[in-house]
Amino acid sequence: FFSSVWDPYSRPARRTQWLVSALAYHYGLDRGVENEIIVLATGLDQYLQEIFHHLDCEGEGKIPGEDFQTLCLVLGLQDDDEAAADPEECTGLCENLSPELTFRQFHAKLCGYFSTKAGCKLPLGKESEHIETQIRLRSPLRRRREQAAAGRRALEDENASLRELVEDMRAALQSSDARCLALQVGLWKSHAQFNQELEKELRNSHEALIALEDCNHSLKREQAEMRKKVEEARCVIVNSLGKVKELETKAHKMSQLQIYIQQLESQLQYYR
User: Fold this and answer.
1) Which positions are tagged coiled coil (predicted)?
2) What is the pLDDT of residues 99-117, one digit of tens each?
3) Which residues pair with 100 in a beta bridge?
């Protein structure tokens, strides 16, 4: 029933899915898992503590809520497809998220998400309240060496060595994967910040381009007005030159008329 709704192996296996697969296996959501997932799931609380420890790089005992949201994105727990298929559960993972999360809140959020999908609830009471203290007492790389009792057979010693080796491998695998997830969260945040800065630069460039286009339009309008005024001035000058020529022509005719009048006056005096 569960596999038809949500499948942690719906995509090709990646290291970012190890935690998802371990949680799914722990809560009985997927049994067809590989050996490393089974090993990781045997120390799930310690696995989560390792991841929290690497996210809490300052050692303050808390991580930003934004980092938790980014981790969910890295793990594929907030994909668009899943949100569309089951928006209530996807929203519940990060709803009412505090600005900062302690390990207990971090643990409860992730485990609660998978336990809800499995149809069960997390245990309540003193055990869950003190889970952080209990986990902190266990070192991730601590070897659980058990002294073989005197007289045990060689097979028991070999089994103990194998168990110890598995514990060491599990601790190393958890620590390595936790570090990898923390780095991916940091890389995701860096990309997001870079994208925001790039979008800001693009907006500024777009605004500058619009301002330049407005300035260009204004210059074109002013240029057109100047051309119009120059054309009007040219027409005025041409008209003025025409009038000057007319006046010159009239002035020339007036001088000829004066000469003719003088000739007539001379003739008139002669006949008198």
Assistant:
1) 145-236
2) 999 999 999 999 999 998 8
3) 64
Percent of the chain at pLDDT > 90 equals 33
Burial (CB < 10 A; 0-12, 13-18, 19+), residue 154, is: exposed
- CA distance readout (Å), 68 to 44, 73, 90, 105, 218: 18, 9, 14, 10, 52
pLDDT in tens, 224-272: 999 999 999 999 998 988 888 888 888 888 878 888 888 888 888 877 6
Query: d(Cα 11, Cα 30) in Å, to the nearest integer?
Result: 14
> For residue 2, how far is the Cα from the chain centroid?
31
Q: Which residue has the tokens 């809560």?
A: 27
Q: Are 97 and 62 in contact (CB under 8 A)?
A: no
Q: In which residue are the tokens 């929203």 written?
A: 91
Residue with tokens 């997390």: 122
Answer yes or no: are the C-beta atoms of 99 and 65 closer than 8 Å: yes
